Amino acid sequence: MKTFSDIEDHWVEPTISELVKRQIIHFETGSLFYPEQKITTEQFVSWLVNSCHVRIANQWTYALEKGLAEDYDFVNREKPIERRQAARMVHDTLRIERKEKNEDDWAAAQKLNDLYSCRTCVQHISQVYVKGIIDPVKPTHFDVTGPLTHAE
Description:
37% of the residues lie in helices and 0% in strands. By secondary structure, it is an all-alpha fold. Helix 2 (41-51) packs parallel to helix 5 (83-96).
């Protein structure tokens, strides 16, 4: 199994090792993972589609047709993904691909002072937050428009 020298003893090492083992994430960058580098929308969609255990030549077609990604994501595929985009994609993937139900009690997410800064994102952000999938950057701040890193 491939290991990355720059995540040895990093908080993300066990998770990344498991995702590499499951062939969900992969890099062609030698022995470095670059945990603090911003992840592009393209990379995120690739990992997301791989997490569905679908091996398909055109991951964008799959993601767009299934409703896991939107035209906005495709147009901005080379840019760093925003945390609200990632929350939407993960939430939609859980609902569509995994048939996972929403958490009924998402009151804990209400402590995020920027939760309502994107009214269309509230449900997505609150669900990934209460499920422990995407942590806020600060205890009370999700950083809705901020970038997501490889480690996150």
